[in-house]
């Protein structure tokens, strides 16, 4: 399974390492042509205004929206990536994909200094708690009807999925635990299977 990693900003190498450890083939995506070699995409954290602007400039927003049109191109957005996937954004609103029916409140967990790590229960990953790192993280303040919450921290949903899309407020590539990446790879495998069966 070839997993694209948007290589504009953020923990590109760490995501690539986690994808490899989870049994996938990481493909760095910088240009529209790179997308053709992928079965799914990870959008790392960073600064969503900058990433969105560059994605727009490189034609990646249009190309990814086209791939996503039939709901068969899995995308996982972490932190800034979550903001770029959100239909609605509170605060300065970056150019973005807007594919997931959530509202993201940018920087709702405070400034850089308010970054933290928390051990979280994520039932789809099994019983062992997951070490989740939050860095100037967005909060999901609204979930559309089709969006399934996967993890909650202090009453706020911090990981969710809708169809082929997965979002998390936290950075799973910053711990050694690869279960979130494994979960995304399974999603990509399922989507590929549906595709080849139809
Ligand atoms: N606060 C950043 C933004 O609004 C996201 C932070 C992150 O990705 N670690 O884009």
Quaternary status: single chain
* Distinct compounds present: glutamine
Main beta-sheet annotation: 7 strands, mixed
Radius of gyration: 15 Å
Q: Averaged pLDDT, please?
A: 95
Ends: how far apart?
19 Å
Number of strands: 12
- At the fourth CATH level, what is the homologous superfamily? Class I glutamine amidotransferase (GATase) domain
Shape: globular
Task: Describe the strand arrangement of the main beta sheet, using strand numbers.
Answer: 2-1-3-4-12-11-10
How helix-rich are the residues, as a percent range? 25-40%
Low-confidence stretches: none
Q: What is the SS-derived class? A: alpha/beta
CATH topology: Rossmann fold
CATH class value: Alpha Beta
CATH-scheme architecture:
3-Layer(aba) Sandwich
* Percent of residues in β-strands: 25-35%
How many structural domains are formed by the residues?
1
Subunit structure: In the presence of PdxS, forms a dodecamer of heterodimers. Only shows activity in the heterodimer.
Pathway: Cofactor biosynthesis; pyridoxal 5'-phosphate biosynthesis
Family: Belongs to the glutaminase PdxT/SNO family.
Keywords: Glutamine amidotransferase, Hydrolase, Lyase, Pyridoxal phosphate
